[in-house]
Design a protein that fits this description.
Elements: H1 2-13, H2 18-32, H3 38-50, H4 55-95, H5 100-128, H6 132-147, H7 155-168, H8 187-211, H9 214-228, H10 237-245, H11 252-262, H12 272-279, H13 283-308, H14 312-316, H15 319-348, H16 352-366, H17 372-387
Helix pairs in contact: 1-4, 2-4, 3-4, 4-12, 4-13, 5-11, 5-15, 5-16, 5-17, 6-7, 6-15, 7-15, 8-9, 8-13, 9-13, 11-12, 12-13, 16-17
Membrane topology: Multi-pass membrane protein
Family: Belongs to the chromate ion transporter (CHR) (TC 2.A.51) family.
Pfam family, one: Chromate_transp
Amino acid sequence: METGWTALRLGLTSFGGPIAHIGYFRNEYVHRRRWVDEETFADLTSMCQFLPGPASSQLGMSLGMKRAGVAGALSAWVGFTLPSALLMTFFAFAAASIGKAGEGLLHGLMLAAVAVVAQAVWSMARTSVTDVTRAVFAVCTAAIALWLPGTAGQLPPLVLCGAAGWLLLRKQVNITAPIPDVPRNRPVLAMTCLSLFFILLALLPVLSVVSLSPLVNLADIGYRAGSLVFGGGHVVLPMLEHESVRSGLLTERQFVEGYGAAQAVPGPLFTFAAYIGAVSSQGLQGCIRAAVMLIAIFLPSFLLVAGVMPFWEGLRANKGTRAALAGVNAAVVGLLAAALYDPVWTSAVRQPIDIAVAAAAFVCLVLWRWPSWLIVAASALAGWMIYG
């Protein structure tokens, strides 16, 4: 119970994205409550950066699991995720009934998304594209993603860049000494979770085709997005855009509007999945779809955290694994750069003044370090003034 209430307070107050969330967690769990020491917190943070999925949510799950086992991990996830999931679901229902003034506000949200995604590309490139080899990975991935929209232009470059990183980047990765205080779960639980992770990854696409059920289709979309995306919240954008827009669940405009709104709420950005589920229908059916999509996109994180924690020391010390991950991270920058152009830029920018608003938001975000929620509010106001 204590784990859930602590996470709920963080879910209500943690603005600023995954990096900021880690700072909130450190202050709460290390300094205020002293549930873990600095070394254990740093080790768990490294593990969650290594795994696909939302890093801050995974860190909350791992801290909850260390504190109170599986129940602690679940309560930590619910507490941290619920506030933003409810807000995004509410926005999905409210956006369908707004007037002309509201259209201006929504366009402002789309312009905020341009700035936020551009800032994500910039910051990730500075840390993940540090040499010519990785720059080639990023550029080639972006070109392929724009040439072949959808999964065909996303997964193959990730796999190829991972393999190329394993071959070419081993000498460039640094391995720190393993920290002895690594949480140890029961091996049976870990292997069960890892097995279930791969079984669902293979089974859900088949069930989606065979059953033709909208709920199974949403579960498949969410689960694959949560399983195959490295780099956290912003990087899920290309995969979700392809799976939801190209399949007709929502329009490109609805997608970018929701993504802009997601920047203004606390908690994990992956709760954008609840918006996708809710906006694809209305009423009770929309709520059910939002819940299915939300659970599906976070389920891989829970299974991976429970499955990897006992083996983290060995993975962390393996140079080949780290080199492959470096290649994947460079490819992720390319995917996000492609998504910045299509759909974010192409949907939001209509005329020169839109470029000015997006550029001003980018400067405020990167140079002046305004918080994301303030960028969203200012951009929405600008959209209302221009188009309202």
